[in-house]
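I am going through a labmate's work and have reached the protein record below. What it holds is a sequence and that sequence's fold in token form. Please read both lines and tell me whether the tokens look consistent with the sequence. Do not assume that whoever made the record got everything right. Thanks in advance; the entry in question is below.
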Amino acid sequence: MVAAALALMALFIFPMWRITLIAPQYPDGVTLYIWINKLSGDGPGTLQNVNILNHYVGMKKIDPDSIPELKYFPYVVMGLVGAALLAAFIDRPGVYLAWLILFVVLALLGIYDFYLWEYDYGHDLSPTAPIKIPGASFQPPLLGTKMILNFIAQSYPHTGGYLAGLAVPLALGAWWFRKKQIAS
């Protein structure tokens, strides 16, 4: 469980997600990194470039200050880290399992929240956009690769996301080994 807590702490060191846009005008791609508390890019003007591109089709400007999750997710993660350490101190399989269920539920809610944000971002288009394509949506994929006009959009976890995901098998292992230890 202590290892699960440390795995979650990786979210404060590494980005949890990345979205890359590849197009003829960006053959190397433009990558946006989503951290637990901020957005960054593969270059100093990445967010500005993404916002300029999105403006043409009427997508909202991405403003990190207007994304409340970037403000409260760090507290949720710190709460989970504290709960994992408390579970390790209590050292009971039921507590490990309860933490694991809580973590999975919160992770799924976070992924669903991200999907809703992407949906709104890609579908709620300005009627005054310079480029209008009837019936088009520009929602990036939640996970995977998708063609959006002449862009290839790729959306995948990054290092922090993978390490945070590692908390699931670590907690499951703690639960299983402690349960087996008590049974013998």
User: Anything to note?
Assistant: The two ends are 21 Å apart (CA to CA). The beta strands are 17-23, 26-34, 39-41, 144-148, 151-157. The CA atoms of residues 51 and 62 lie 6 Å apart. The first helix runs from residue 2 to 9.
